[in-house]
Amino acid sequence: MAWELIEVPGNLNPSLQDSTVDVLATKIDPKLANTLIRQLSQVCPLENLRHVKRVRRRTECGGKSELSIILCVSTGSEPCSIQFSEDLQKIVDTYQLSPFTAKVAKYCATSKEEWEEQCKLWPTSYHPAHDLDIVRGFQEEELPSIFNCMKTAIQLSKAGNAAIIIDPSSMQIIAKATDQTHKHDTPEEGNTFSEANADVTCSLNASTDNDCNLSLPGSFLSKRNSLNMEISCINPWGWMRKRTCEQKPLPCDGCFAWHPLRHAPMVAIENAAERDRTMFPSSTSITKPDSNGNPENCCDNEPAKRLKTDTKDNEQSSSESFRGDLSETSRPYLCTGFDIYLVWEPCTMCAMALVHHRFKRVFYAFPNPVTGALGGVYRLHGERSLNHHYNVFRVSVPEAYSNGLKYCSKEC
């Protein structure tokens, strides 16, 4: 089996009947169309249905056109007179309109086929994306580096999940981490940020053949063949399992080295934040009260962050800032524009953390059949109510990588 990139859609093309909303409409004389459109736009604008056209034209059997116009969104099974506002009722009475209930598409169409289905109910607007890369979320020339980054994540995974945050503009590793939800026999590696880690880059010279010339050491595959894998996102209660006396705790510098919520994505985000504090120190001093209530000056290590954009100029300046002069103004806003590579599909907690930190793309290799939030069980990235959305891709890896990595329901 060859390396392959598979997009995980945010929804499974739900039927149109499951994504409609009721409106109150009425047939009108074509001569009144312009007048009613102006009045209704002022009295009852369709704020949440901007993709729906206000007027529908249908041709009757005799060739005569029939116009219908939307008055307002229906609020329930109450009579129309109760649903209308005072101004809207005045329009209905003035022109002696006879309202009826109709269904319209709740969301704008994402494809031509979906738009054609919507127009069977009521006409809507459709604006297709002209840039294919925007639709797909990646470019063909990125595939070798994407596969190489996933290989790096798999190699990092020793016990549980692994996460690597990448800046796609420079292919630089921003942070990396593994699960820290319980104590392990061997210390975890790569969980603490250092400037040396940040200088490591994914090779862009990977072979473009089917297997990308990526191989794993035999010792790694033998470890992955164990059925005692503990993936935090799959088995969130695994940290409660009794441990043997021989197990040694993770290295700790005056803080907890493990915690039930320290899943790999959460730790990677924490390491990225620590990287920001290290590489973008603030010289601004603020006044805070001490324990006795007296003011004292202290250094504010959280300067205002600049929102990262996708313009070419900003991408260039961002890339230069990582390699050269690291000024405070070049500090990224959270993880905006970054990619994250996960060996296992994240749970809902981790997937929502990726939303809050404004990731651009999420890549994972193996689905999570128990608590997967990005295709395995739920599709959180398709939730329209969220204020940020990222593209999700599953990297189908060769058989040599997947041996021993498949989820074992008996153990978890």
From TrEMBL:
Superkingdom, natural source: Eukaryota
GO cellular component: cytoplasm; nucleus
Compositional bias ranges of the Polar residues kind: 280-295
One MF annotation (Gene Ontology) recorded for this entry: catalytic activity
Region (Disordered): 280-327
InterPro entries: CMP_dCMP_dom, Cytidine_deaminase-like
Domain CMP/dCMP-type deaminase: start-end pairs: 256-393
UniProt keyword terms in alphabetical order: tRNA processing
Compositional bias annotation for Basic and acidic residues: 302-315
Gene Ontology terms describing biological process: tRNA processing
Family assignment from sequence similarity: Belongs to the cytidine and deoxycytidylate deaminase family. ADAT3 subfamily.
Protein name: CMP/dCMP-type deaminase domain-containing protein
Lineage of source species: Eukaryota, Viridiplantae, Streptophyta, Embryophyta, Tracheophyta
